[in-house]
Amino acid sequence: MNTNITDLKTVRLSQDGSAVIILDQTRLPGSEVYISLFSAEDVWDAIYKLKVRGAPAIGIAAAYGIYICSRLIAADTYDVFYREFLRVKDYLASSRPTAVNLIAALNRMEKVVTTHAEGSVPEIVQLLRAESEAIRTEDAAACRRIGENCLSLLRPGMGILTHCNAGHLAVSEYGTALAPVYLGEERGYGFKVFADETRPLLQGARLTAYELQKAGVDVTLICDNMASAVMRKGWVQAVVVGCDRVAANGDTANKIGTSGVAILARHYGIPFYVLGPTSTIDLNCPDGESIEIEERHPEEITDMWYASRMAPEGVKAYNPAFDVTPHDLITAIITEKGIAYPPFRMEDL
Ligand SMILES: CSC[C@H]1O[C@H](OP(=O)(O)O)[C@H](O)[C@@H]1O
C-alpha cells in the first residue's frame, strides 16, 4: 500500500495513555486535523458526529475511550470502580446504535473488569489498556486477512464499485471493503474503483475518494444515482461494501443506499460482496429486522454542513447528465394517448 495512506492514523491512544487521538474525519478531505479526546464526553461526541466512524474504528475508539476514563476513576475499592466503569460504558454505548463493534468492544472491556475482581484497581486499569490495544491489533490483522480472502475472488483490471467508506479510515488500518483494493494495488492488479459519493454525509466523496487518491488507486467519483449507468456500461465487475452489523442469517446493515446497490448489482449480474471482520457479526440478532437503524438529524440532508471541499482536489469524476432505464424494467409508459404495457411498440401509440 502506498505509504501515504498509512500516514493517516484513524484512531490511536496517546503514548501516556491519557487521550484518544483521532483524525477528525469531518474535516476531510480539506484538512487533515488530529484531535485529542480526554473524556467520555469527548469520545461520545466524536463518535456521534462521525469525527471517527466506521464500525471497527468506532469500537476501537470506545475501547480506548473507556480505558482513558478508567484511569480517572477515583476509586480505592473494586465496587466503586466497577460502578463508575459501568456508567461510562453505558454512556459511550449510547453514542450510536447500529455498528455492533461499539457495544462488542465495550463488553470486551467490561469482561476484563469482571474477570479480575480480585485485582487492585491499578492492575485492572493496566489490563484495560492491554485489552484496548489488543482490540486494535486484532482488527488490523483481520483487515489484512479480509483483503487476502476477497482478492481471491477478484481479477486484475476489474472495475470495482463501492458505497460509503469501508477503507483505512473506517478501521484500525487498511480497511475492509477497500482492503482487497489496497492489496491488489500492492500486487499490480490495476483495479478501477468507482466510489459512490454516498449522500447525505458523502463518506464516499469525502473519504473513499480521498484515501484511494492518496494511495494512488485509480478512483472515479460518481453520484449515487449513477451506479446503474456505470454498471450498465459494463464498467463494474464486482461490488465491495463494508458492514455495520451482520445478523445471524446474513442480513447486513450498512450505510444507507447499500441495499439499492445490491439490487442494481443483482439486476446486472454483478457479484455483490460484503466485507467485514467477525467482530461485526451479531449472532444475537436473528435477522435484519432486529437491527436497530440509527436515524440522524434531518439537517444532514438539508444543509451541506461540511464547509470544506466535498471531494479531494483533482479527483476524477464521471458526470453523465442522464442514464437509460431498459424497457424490461418499465412497468408501463403513460402518454396523453393512453397507457402502453410491455412489449412496447411505440409506433402503436
Ligand atoms: C468498515 S465499517 C464501515 C461502514 O461504516 C460506515 O458507516 P459510518 O460512516 O456511518 O460509521 C458505513 O456503513 C461503512 O460501510
From TrEMBL:
The active site is at 244 (proton donor). SUPFAM superfamilies: NagB/RpiA/CoA transferase-like. Substrate binds at residues 53-55, 96, 203, 254-255. Keywords: Amino-acid biosynthesis, Isomerase, Methionine biosynthesis. GO terms for molecular function: S-methyl-5-thioribose-1-phosphate isomerase activity. Its EC number is 5.3.1.23. Pathway: Amino-acid biosynthesis; L-methionine biosynthesis via salvage pathway; L-methionine from S-methyl-5-thio-alpha-D-ribose 1-phosphate: step 1/6. It catalyses: 5-(methylsulfanyl)-alpha-D-ribose 1-phosphate = 5-(methylsulfanyl)-D-ribulose 1-phosphate. The record marks 164 as: Transition state stabilizer. Belongs to the EIF-2B alpha/beta/delta subunits family. MtnA subfamily. NCBIfam families: eIF-2B_rel, PRK05720.1, salvage_mtnA. Catalyzes the interconversion of methylthioribose-1-phosphate (MTR-1-P) into methylthioribulose-1-phosphate (MTRu-1-P). PANTHER family: METHYLTHIORIBOSE-1-PHOSPHATE ISOMERASE (PTHR43475). This is Methylthioribose-1-phosphate isomerase. It comes from Parabacteroides hominis. The lineage of its organism: Bacteria, Pseudomonadati, Bacteroidota, Bacteroidia, Bacteroidales. The gene is mtnA.
